[in-house]
Amino acid sequence: MLNSAIAIRDKLNSGQIADQRGLIRMISESNVDEAHIIDKTGRFILSSNGFAESTRANLFDYCKNYEGLVTGASPLEQTPIILTPTGKPEKFTMLPTASGKYIVEVGMMLNFIEETLSNTVTTYKEIGSISLTTPSNKLLGQIQRTRYGDEHSMHFREIVQGSMEQCCECKNKNLTDENGRYYYVLSATISAESLLNKMNQLRLFIVSILIVLSSACWVLSRILTKRLVGRLRKLEEGLDRVGETGDLTASISVRGRDEISKIVEQFNGMIVRLNKNQNRLIDAEKNKAVAHIASQVAHDIRSPLAALNIAIQSMQGVPEEVRILIRSALQRINDIANQLALKKTKRAEDKQSADEPSETTLLSPVIESLVSEKRIQYKAFAGITIESNLSNEACGMFSRIQPGAFKRVLSNLINNSIDAFENESGIITLSMTVGTLPDDERQITIIVADNGKGISPEVLPKLMQRGATYGKEGHDTSGTGLGLYHAKETIRSWGGNIMIESEIGKGTRVVITLPQQPAPHWFLQSLSVGISESQHRIIILDDDDSIHGVWEKRLVDKGIHKNDIVHFTNSEAFLYWHHECVSTASIHQSLLYLFDYELFGSKLSGLDVIEKLGIAKEAVLVTSRYEDETVLKKCKRLGVKLLPKNMAGFVPIDILR
Predict the structure, then answer these.
(1) Collapsing DSSP states into helix, strand and coil, what is residue 127?
(2) Is 523 within 8 Å of 636 (Cβ atoms)?
(3) pLDDT tens digit string along 583-608?
(4) CB–CB of 568/555 below 8 Å?
(5) Do 88 and 142 form a contact (C-beta atoms < 8 A)?
(6) What confidence tens digit (pLDDT) does each residue in 476-498 have?
(7) N or C: more exposed end of the chain, with fewer CB within 10 A?
(8) What are phi and psi of 620, to 5 degrees?
(9) What is the C-alpha separation between 437 and 517, in angstroms, rounded?
């Protein structure tokens, strides 16, 4: 509509529209249904539909704000979907000429509303009637196929926000609510059969979650023994059967007493509970049924997740990076369960969750884990590369955020970059740096950059407005325009900011800034190693050989002799060495202990060994489970400093002589 109004205005300025015939010719060449030329007093002097001047109301009678078009106060005026004097829904756009002498108004009849409602009723047989009205109950469109009695139907009323919450013309036409707001009201009457359709949708959702769990089991099966591989495949086949048939009465049979058997028991128990919940749904009150089943599904998801966590902890031979990735994926599934349990209404996704507390969070592991997940998610797209580029200093930075919400914001930004690629080929880079503001405050900058098709300058300023979207029209991932709007609101609630930079043909950069927070007391900001004439040794206890290599290279580069670095991969061997060489005083030296928490094949964790020997002051716990509440509490009690394992290659090392 805006382009049509501009085209007509240009023709009018150049003198190519002198009468109604010329105006009608312009209408035939545009995508609007009518056009009018209005003088600076608000009178309609030329109309494409043949309205005489004496029978047309003054434009300024509809809204006094329209006078700004001729005074220069307003360069553009638009209306939402409103009712014309003929009772038809229509949208209008008004532009002044450069001289301010005339106003060009174009309108588009929205006949597709009733067509859309009719298609909806035709597609969904359970809908008896459906209508779209203004807040004052004026009909914009209505379709009614049949009627249901109260005992056979449910009535729904949903408010649909439009592009303009405040509308001057709407107020004058008594179309707004009592508070002067303008929106659309979608009302529908649905038969009881729709409940069964909702249950089927929930069943598909549950099956999707189970498929995610089966995928995690498949990853583990690649590194387990043949016996365990066979059990995992049997579990996967059972899940596939459930997914293909949708039969929640089926169960999976796996004999044994190992971790996989426990997971299968949990799964079979969940199937039984889901069947019970399905029966409860039919008997429950109709207006509370969806919320009830959603809460129960969330509860049931957590049981097999807990069993899978226990199984992972007891499995040997799994590399550290694989364990981190699996725990991260399980946490995301758990986040989904939490959000499902907290969902109260159909519009819950329109509100920022207030139930997730803000906390001082180490940002680098959140970003790295998300990059790993996204690589797996899009591994089928060989031409797409997702990488992280975090500066050494930024890897140890904290900010007060909601970790789950932060991860969702970055995930949505990556998805947007994927949509910007043509031919499914491109590079996405997540980077993080730290800088100092003029007032000496420290600021963290996170950038999500891609080399996609870019965004036009006309669209860019509108992107973070509510309802705005770009580049997804007709796309499978076509959005509602809420992602960037919610990202902006979420980040600002943490005291940060977000901005978008883009250039057509070169790509887009989304820049997020967050205030830096002081590191928590448990975090090891630098590693101090004393070197003197007396003997000194550094003892590394970790079941991951790569971590031994990282520590040894960094320490040797700092001047530590290789013979002064002692390596152990299990707690039993270390305890024997400590008893023989330290407890019996066969050596006299200063010691520094760098211990992992998880030590597969060992009965004691690294933290247990620290507590057993009373070496908390000389020890650092280096673990990927630094966010585990149990680990944190024990470190606080013992006074042990804690370092995330992915920081081993970056933590500053200070040599004390």
Answers:
(1) strand
(2) no
(3) 766 555 678 999 999 888 888 999 99
(4) no
(5) no
(6) 444 444 578 889 999 999 999 99
(7) C
(8) -130, 130
(9) 14
